[in-house]
Design a protein that fits this description.
Distance between the termini: 49 Å
Number of strands: 2
Strand content: under 5%
Shape: elongated
Helix content: 55-70%
Radius of gyration: 20 Å
Largest sheet: 2 strands, antiparallel
Length: 163
């Protein structure tokens, strides 16, 4: 579109967008990669008491909970093993600090910028159009990120229960 969005009169440029992408994508990355790694390791699979789709959901929930700084797990997953203790601890550490550091870097970058005057080319970030586009992008990125694992886990399990 050729217009640079502004926030509080300061241009949001490539550096801020990259930092925002890091803050947005670190959470799915630290959930899905360890889940895949856990499902490839025999000692991690041995901790799953319910096989199949429910086992995938147990492992996915354990890492999602760790990324959200909760650290809980389903009762069917024996998460008190060396692998899960270390992996969920690392996920919890990254989930707590990486996105926070990226957001502080965005704030620091915007703090050093000068306020620019509003022109006809300014893409205002306080309009319903910008809010709608932002919300739709968050929904699309979230759906594309987590829907495959949800389809293989809880949704497939629910469909199997119906049969």
């Amino acid at each position: 579109m050729g217009r640079t969005p502004e926030f509080l009169g300061k241009k949001i440029e490539g550096k801020e967008v990259k930092l925002a992408c890091i803050a947005l994508l670190i959470h799915p990355l630290i959930i899905l990669v360890p889940t895949a790694l856990a499902l490839m390791r025999p000692e991690a699979i041995a901790s799953i008491s319910n096989g199949g789709m429910h086992g995938l959901t147990e492992v996915l929930y354990a890492f999602a909970s760790g990324a959200a700084n909760n650290g809980s797990a389903f009762a069917g997953l024996n998460a008190n093993t060396d692998f899960y203790n270390i992996a969920i601890g690392i996920v919890m550490l990254l989930g707590r600090y990486v996105s926070m550091i990226a957001m502080l870097a965005i704030a620091g970058s915007l703090a050093t910028k000068r306020v620019v005057p509003v022109t006809t080319g300014t893409l205002r970030t306080h309009t319903p159009l910008f809010a709608g586009i932002l919300v739709m992008m968050i929904v699309v990125v979230g759906a594309l990120t987590f829907f495959p694992s949800l389809a293989l886990g809880p949704i497939a399990e629910h469909l199997a229960m119906i049969q």
